[in-house]
Amino acid sequence: MSDCPTNPVDLPGHFFHTLHDNGAIKYQGQVVGRIEPGLFLVELFSYNDGLRTHRQVVPVSDMTGWRFYPSAEEMIDYHERVTR
Questions:
Q1: pLDDT of the residue at 49
Q2: Does 1 have pLDDT greater than 50?
Q3: Considering the entire predicted model, what is its pTM?
Q4: In this predicted model, what pLDDT tens digit does every residue of 14-61 receive, in sequence order?
């Protein structure tokens, strides 16, 4: 994964996966923007067809352990590798 953010301010625009405890993908989406320090608006995508489903506000503390990607293509590539 290239260009992964190291500072939460740089998260908007990045795609992500959240993971179950066993490492399987739980949710996927994109960070839409920073609302205020420590709060981000994210858009979730359907696991079945990849279509956008809804947006929600997430505290940065809940993002610990998420995998971030600079592009949708890199997110999809990771998904395809772990589901083979």
A1: 82
A2: no
A3: 0.84
A4: 999 998 888 888 899 999 999 999 999 999 998 778 889 999 999 999
| Pairing state between β 25-36 and 39-45 | antiparallel
Tell me the sheet residues that pair with 45: 28, 52
Across 21-66, the runs of DSSP E, i.e. the strands, are 25-36, 39-45, 52-59
The percent of residues in the chain predicted with pLDDT above 70, rounded, is 89
Asked, for residue 2, whether it belongs to a domain, the answer is no
The Cα-based distances of 64 to 15, 42, 49 in angstroms read: 14, 14, 26
Rounded CA separation 23/32 (Å): 24
| Tally of domains within the chain | 1
Closest CA to 1 of 84, 68, 81: 68
What range defines the domain where residue 56 resides?
A: 8-66
